[in-house]
Specification:
Layout (H helix, E strand, L loop, with lengths): L2 H11 L1 H33 E2 L2 E5 L8 E4 L5 H11 L32
Antiparallel strand pairs: 1-2, 2-3
């Protein structure tokens, strides 16, 4: 796009002007690209945030949107546990690990099974 014009300037006036032309062009394109990426980031952030997928729903009175939580796959959950160990484990005031809906406590050494 700019190459033929830069070559013409180079042949007519020399390298200094050709370099200035290419530099100006690069700076302008970089600014445009940066603005486009910021807009794209904004669109992604609004649509996909905090493990939710947000889509338009015009008749929804609060936000005009619908939020769906796809959840984490078992592979991702396993990876988090493997990489973080006990870091995110929730322990109640008695020092036991509360069992959340859909979880199994049978392998947890921290669960107090005496009250069952």
């Amino acid at each position: 796009a700019i190459d033929p014009q830069a070559l013409e300037v180079y042949n007519r006036t020399g390298s200094r002007e050709a370099i200035e032309l290419v530099t100006r062009f690069s700076e302008e394109v970089a600014l445009i690209l940066h603005e486009e990426w910021l807009k794209f980031y904004g669109e992604l952030f609004v649509q996909f945030r905090d493990f939710y997928t947000i889509s338009k729903k015009r008749n929804e009175p609060v936000c005009g949107c619908q939020a769906k939580e796809p959840g984490l796959s078992e592979d991702i959950k396993k990876r988090i546990v493997e990489e973080t160990g006990e870091h995110y484990r929730v322990i109640d005031k008695k020092g036991t690990v509360p069992v959340l809906h859909g979880e199994s406590d049978r392998h947890s050494p921290l669960v107090d099974r005496s009250e069952r």
